[in-house]
C-alpha cells in the first residue's frame, strides 16, 4: 500500500475511534467500553510506528519518533486510553501534515519534471514522423508545432520563432529567436510552427539536466538538516530523563506521560527539510537550479563572490557600446543605414549591428551595389545614399579626423574595442564603437549581493590588464585578477575560500575547475555551457546576472526560516515539558498543544516557498 494512503487510513481510524468512543461514553455505556474502542483505534498506529522504527533501525537509523511510541504505549499501560488515542491522532495527523507540506514544497519541482518533452516530429524525404524524444539523433531536422515543447536542444532553421521560456528561465514574456540561434529543450513554441536542427541527444539536453538537478534537490540532505537530525536524537534521552524526574518527584506516572506527550519532536525533524525543499522550489521558479539542499545551505553562508569577466560580468561578445554622430546627424538614422548595408556582409560584427537596430525597432532597407573589402569594410548604397563603413583607412583614407570625432578617438585609444567609421556620400557621419560591454544589470546585481551579506567581490579574467581595468573602473569591485589561466583561477579561488565561504560565478569551459573548487559554484547556463553547468552547484538559466543575487537572498531567507522553525519548535516543546512536569498540563491537553506547535512550525517552514524579502544574515 502507498505510504501516504496508509498514513491517511491510520488517521481516519484514530479519529473514528475517538468519535465512536466519546459517543458510547455519552450514551451511558461507561468508560470501560469507550476505553476499549480508544485502545483498538490506537493499536494500529502503534503497530505501524513500531514497524517503521524497526525498519529504520535495521538500516542503521534511529528515529526520535520513539517518543511518540513510548507515550502511546505508556498511556495504554497506565489506563489512559483517551490520551493514547489523542496522541495517536496527533502523530498520524502529523504524518499526513508532513505529506502535505512536502507535496506543497515539491510542487514546483514536480511541475518541471512532469512537463518534460516526450515526443518529437522528425522530418525526412518521406515526410514527417512522430517519434519518442530519446530516438532523436544529433543532426535530425525537427518540426515544432504551435504550442509544443521543444524536444531537444538545437539550432533554429527558420527565419524567426517566438518561444515561451518561463518554465525554464522564469522570464514571463515570450522571446523572439532568429535563424541560427540556439534553442533549448523544454521551452514552448508560442508562435507559428518552425523547423530546428537537433544539436544534442535528449539525455544531454537542457531539460534533461534540469530533471537530474530536480532529482538531486529532492533527495540530497543539507548538512544543516543532518545536524538537526542528530540534535533531535538528543531529545529522546532528555525527554525520558525529565519524565522520570517528574514521576519520581510527584509519584504520579501520569505526569511522566504528559511530559512524553508534549515532547513529540515533529517540528524539529520536519521543519528544516520542508523549508529547504521550499527554498529550492522557489529558486526553480526564478530560473535558478540548485543541485540539492546542500547547495542552498552553502550559498546561504557565502561572504565572497568571485566573477569571471567575459560572459559573466560582460555580455561576452562584440556589443554596441557607443554611437558618435556628427553634428546634425541622428544616431538612429545612422544605425538604420549601417544595419541595412550590413545585411549583405558576413563580417563578425554583422549580427551585433543588426540586433542593435532591431532592438530599437528600426526598419531596414535593401542595400544595393555592395562591395566588400575583406578585413576593411563595405561600400554600397541604401535609399539612394552612398555609404562606406569600416576601418578608418577605408572610410577616410588619408583625411584627418573632424574635431567632433577626436575626443572619442582619444577615449578609446589602447582599449580592446572595434571602431566602425561610417561615411554618407563621402562625409564622415558617425563612428560606432563595439566591445565586450558590461551587462546592463551588473551594477545592480553587485549592489544587491552586498545588501544580502556578500562582503567581498573579486573579478577573475584571462584578459590583459587594460581590458580588466576598463571593466573594473565601471564596477565597484574589491579586487581584480587579470591574465588568469585556469590554474591561476583555481589558486585564487582556493586563497579566497581559505578566508571566507566563497562562490565562483562563471560561464565558460575554462571556468569549470574554479567552479568546482569554490564553496559554491554558480554557472551562467543560459548559453548552454555544459562543462561549467555540470561542475557548478547552482545554475542560472536566464542570461542575466541579477538572479545570482536573488539566489543568495533566497538561500539566506530559507536557512533563516529553517532555523527559526527549529528554535521556536524546541523552545515551545521545552516550555510545555516543564509545565507538564509540574502538573499543569494533562496528557490529552498536551497532545493537543503539541499538535498546535507542529502546525505553527510547519506553516512557518512553508514560508520558504514565497517571495518574502531577502534577509541579511
Measured between the Cα atoms of the first and last residue, the distance is 44 Å
Helical content (DSSP H or I, runs of 4+): 40-55%
Low-confidence stretches: none
Largest sheet: 7 strands, mixed
Placed side by side, the strands forming the largest sheet appear as 10-22-21-20-11-18-19
Per CATH, which architecture of the domain at 287-315 and 439-554?
3-Layer(aba) Sandwich
- CATH superfamily of the domain at 287-315 and 439-554, please? HAD superfamily/HAD-like
Annotation, overall tally of beta strands:
22
Round the Cα radius of gyration to an integer and report it: 33 Å
Give the overall form.
elongated
The class by helix and strand makeup works out as alpha+beta
- In round numbers, the mean pLDDT is 83
How much beta, percentage-wise?
15-25%
* Total count of helical runs of at least 4 residues: 22
CATH class wording of the domain at 287-315 and 439-554: Alpha Beta
What is the CATH T-level topology of the domain at 287-315 and 439-554?
Rossmann fold
Report on this model:
- The chain is an alpha+beta fold and 617 residues long.
- It has 22 helices and 22 strands.
- Among the domains are: 287-315 and 439-554, Rossmann fold, CATH 3.40.50; 319-435, 3-Layer(aba) Sandwich (Calcium-transporting ATPase, cytoplasmic domain N), CATH 3.40.1110.
- The protein has a seven-stranded mixed β-sheet, sandwiched between helices. The protein has a six-stranded antiparallel β-sheet with strand order 2-1-3-9-4-7, with no helix packed on it. Strands 12-17-16-15-14-13 form a six-stranded antiparallel β-sheet.
- Helix 20 links the parallel strand 21 and strand 22 (538-540).
- The mean pLDDT is 83.
Amino acid at each position: 500500500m502507498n505510504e501516504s494512503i496508509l498514513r491517511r487510513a491510520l488517521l481516519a481510524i484514530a479519529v473514528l475511534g475517538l468519535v465512536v468512543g466519546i459517543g458510547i461514553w455519552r450514551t451511558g455505556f461507561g468508560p470501560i467500553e469507550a476505553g476499549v474502542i480508544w485502545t483498538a483505534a490506537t493499536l494500529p498506529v502503534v503497530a505501524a510506528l513500531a514497524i517503521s522504527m524497526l525498519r529504520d533501525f535495521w538500516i542503521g537509523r534511529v528515529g526520535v519518533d520513539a517518543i511518540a511510541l513510548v507515550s502511546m504505549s505508556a498511556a495504554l499501560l497506565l489506563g489512559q486510553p483517551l490520551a493514547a488515542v489523542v496522541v495517536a491522532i496527533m502523530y498520524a495527523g502529523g504524518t499526513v501534515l508532513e505529506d502535505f507540506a512536502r507535496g506543497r514544497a515539491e510542487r514546483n519541482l514536480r511541475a518541471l519534471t512532469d512537463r518534460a518533452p516526450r515526443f518529437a516530429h522528425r522530418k525526412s524525404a518521406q515526410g514527417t514522423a512522430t517519434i519518442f524524444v530519446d530516438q532523436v539523433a544529433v543532426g535530425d531536422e525537427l518540426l515544432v508545432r504551435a504550442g509544443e515543447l521543444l524536444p531537444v536542444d538545437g539550432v533554429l532553421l527558420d527565419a524567426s520563432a517566438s518561444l515561451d521560456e518561463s518554465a525554464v528561465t522564469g522570464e514571463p514574456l515570450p522571446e523572439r529567436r532568429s535563424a541560427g540561434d540556439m534553442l533549448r529543450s523544454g521551452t514552448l513554441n508560442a508562435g507559428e510552427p518552425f523547423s530546428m536542427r537537433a544539436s544534442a541527444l535528449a539525455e544531454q539536453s537542457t531539460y534533461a539536466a534540469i530533471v537530474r538537478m530536480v532529482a538531486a534537490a529532492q533527495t540530497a540532505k543539507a548538512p544543516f538538516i543532518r545536524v538537526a537530525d542528530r540534535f533531535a536524537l538528543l531529545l529522546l534521552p532528555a525527554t525520558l530523563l525529565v519524565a522520570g524526574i517528574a514521576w519520581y518527584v510527584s509519584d504520579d506516572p501520569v505526569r511522566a506521560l504528559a511530559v512524553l506527550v508534549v515532547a513529540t519532536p515533529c517540528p524539529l525533524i520536519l521543519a528544516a527539510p520542508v523549508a529547504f525543499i521550499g527554498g529550492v522550489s522557489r529558486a526553480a521558479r526564478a530560473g535558478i537550479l540548485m543541485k540539492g539542499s546542500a547547495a542552498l545551505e552553502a550559498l546561504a553562508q557565502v561572504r565572497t563572490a568571485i566573477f569571471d569577466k567575459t560572459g559573466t560580468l560582460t555580455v561576452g561578445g562584440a556589443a554596441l557600446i557607443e554611437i558618435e554622430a556628427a553634428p546634425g546627424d541622428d544616431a538612429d538614422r545612422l544605425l538604420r543605414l549601417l544595419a541595412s548595408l550590413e545585411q549583405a556582409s558576413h563580417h563578425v560584427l554583422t549580427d551585433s549591428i543588426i540586433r542593435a537596430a532591431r532592438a530599437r525597432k528600426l526598419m531596414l532597407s535593401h542595400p544595393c551595389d555592395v562591395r566588400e573589402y575583406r578585413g576593411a569594410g563595405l561600400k554600397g548604397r541604401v535609399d539612394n545614399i552612398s555609404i562606406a563603413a569600416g576601418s578608418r583607412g577605408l572610410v577616410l583614407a588619408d583625411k584627418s579626423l573632424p574635431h567632433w570625432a577626436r575626443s572619442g578617438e582619444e577615449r578609446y585609444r589602447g582599449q580592446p574595442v572595434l571602431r566602425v567609421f561610417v561615411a554618407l556620400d563621402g562625409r564622415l557621419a558617425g563612428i560606432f564603437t563595439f566591445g565586450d560591454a558590461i551587462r546592463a544589470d551588473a551594477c545592480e546585481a553587485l549592489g544587491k549581493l552586498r545588501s544580502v551579506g556578500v562582503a567581498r567581490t573579486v573579478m577573475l579574467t584571462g584578459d590583459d590588464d587594460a581590458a580588466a581595468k576598463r571593466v573594473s573602473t565601471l564596477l565597484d569591485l574589491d579586487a581584480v585578477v587579470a591574465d588568469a589561466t585556469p590554474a591561476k583561477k583555481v589558486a585564487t579561488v582556493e586563497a579566497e575560500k581559505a578566508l571566507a565561504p566563497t562562490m565562483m560565478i562563471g560561464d565558460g569551459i575554462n571556468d569549470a575547475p574554479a567552479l568546482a573548487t569554490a564553496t559554491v559554484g554558480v554557472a551562467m547556463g543560459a548559453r548552454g555551457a555544459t562543462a561549467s553547468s555540470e561542475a557548478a552547484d547552482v545554475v542560472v538559466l536566464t542570461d542575466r546576472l541579477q538572479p545570482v543575487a536573488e539566489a543568495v537572498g533566497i538561500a539566506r531567507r530559507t536557512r533563516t526560516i529553517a532555523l527559526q522553525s527549529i528554535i521556536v519548535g524546541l523552545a515551545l516543546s521545552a516550555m510545555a515539558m516543564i509545565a507538564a512536569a509540574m502538573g499543569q498540563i494533562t496528557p490529552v491537553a498536551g497532545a493537543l498543544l503539541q499538535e498546535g506547535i507542529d502546525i505553527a512550525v510547519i506553516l512557518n517552514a512553508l514560508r520558504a516557498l514565497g517571495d518574502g524579502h531577502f534577509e541579511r544574515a
